[in-house]
Structures are given as structure tokens and as C-alpha cells.
Write a structure and sequence with these properties.
rod-shaped; about 95% helix; about 200 residues; mainly alpha
Length: about 200
């Protein structure tokens, strides 16, 4: 029995040695082929991929594994690109909105500045007109002060109350008294009353 076991053990060892020898020889041959092909400029990995694609079962496995990796990574990249493009579009819309807001505010400020300038010009024109009116009125008052009360009294009595009051209140007191003496008693009373009301209001 022992001899039979030993012979089986020896035979199995011989088979293993032969298998390992063949495997080592094949690996060595493959290595030499890879080195030779790389020296000739042939891309061994591309060639192996082409060969594997020709073998039906292997090509299906490779396609499935590559497809999953490519699909998932491509989808992720596409999703990121879409997200970034959306963000860029949103940012551009915000920028345009802010630019239009700034532009409208600038236009509003320009309009306000123009209105302010126009108002200042109008105020200046009114002041000039007021100065001219004041000078003209002062000239009128001086004229009434220079002419005799006998001549000025009938003119004042024909004026409206407001105009007459304005002139009479600006004339010197002694000249005013002389003009009131030349008026009719009713006119003198009316103008005296108006002057008293105006002085109490001032």
C-alpha cells in the first residue's frame, strides 16, 4: 500500500513540475514577445484590446465593465457641466439685472441733477426779476415822493386798493400825510384803515 501511495505522490509531483515548467515557459515567451513588439513600436495593450474585442464572451465583459464606468463618470461630468452652466446663466442674469438697476439709478440721478439745475436757474431768474421789480417799484415810490401831493392824490385814488396800499406804505411819513390830505374824506379814511391793518399785520 505504501508503495502505491508513494508512486501516486511521485507521479502527481511530476505532473505539477511539468505544468509549472510549461506555465513558466509560456510566461517567459509572452514577456519576450511584449518586449520585441514594444521595440518595433507596436502598442501591445491596444492590440490586446483589439484581440479581446474579437473574442465574443471577453468583448461583452469588457464592454459591460467599461460602459458602466464610462456611463457613470460621463453622467456625473455632464450633470456637473449642466449645473455649472445653469449657475453661470443665473449669475449672468443677476449681473444684467444689477447693471440695469445701476443704469436706471444713474439716469434717475442725472434727471434729478438736471431738474435741480433748472430749478436753480428759475430761482436765479426770479431773484433777478424781483430785483428789477423792486428797483422799478422804488423808482415809482421816488416819483410819487417827488411830484406834488395835489397831483399824486387823484392818481392813487383811481388805483386798486392793493397797489395804492403798496405805494402809500412805502412813501415817507410826511409825504404820506400830505397825499392823504389831498384825498377825499372817504378815500383818506379807507386808505388809513388799510394802512393801519397792514402795519398791525407786519
Amino acid at each position: 500500500m505504501k508503495k502505491i501511495d508513494e508512486t501516486e505522490h511521485v507521479e502527481s509531483n511530476k505532473v505539477q513540475v511539468i505544468l509549472f515548467s510549461v506555465l513558466i515557459f509560456l510566461l517567459f515567451t509572452l514577456l519576450v514577445l511584449v518586449i520585441l513588439l514594444s521595440f518595433t513600436g507596436t502598442n501591445v495593450f491596444e492590440k490586446s484590446k483589439e484581440l479581446s474585442e474579437k473574442i465574443p464572451f471577453v468583448s461583452q465583459l469588457l464592454d459591460k465593465s467599461d460602459g458602466k464606468i464610462q456611463d457613470s463618470s460621463t453622467k456625473d461630468i455632464q450633470a456637473k457641466v449642466v449645473g455649472l452652466e445653469t449657475e453661470i446663466t443665473n449669475r449672468q442674469a443677476e449681473i444684467k439685472k444689477l447693471e440695469s438697476l445701476i443704469e436706471s439709478r444713474d439716469k434717475k440721478l442725472e434727471r434729478i441733477e438736471l431738474e435741480k439745475q433748472q430749478l436753480e436757474m428759475e430761482i436765479e431768474e426770479l431773484r433777478e426779476a424781483q430785483k428789477i421789480n423792486n428797483r422799478a417799484f422804488q423808482d415809482i415810490v421816488k416819483t410819487y415822493e417827488t411830484i406834488s401831493p395835489k397831483k399824486s392824490a387823484p392818481i392813487i385814488s383811481k388805483m386798486g386798493d392793493e397797489e395804492a396800499l403798496k405805494i402809500l406804505s412805502s412813501i415817507k411819513t410826511d409825504k404820506l400825510a400830505a397825499i392823504l390830505e389831498q384825498l377825499t374824506p372817504d378815500d383818506a379814511a379807507r386808505f388809513t384803515k388799510l394802512l393801519a391793518t397792514k402795519s398791525s399785520a407786519d
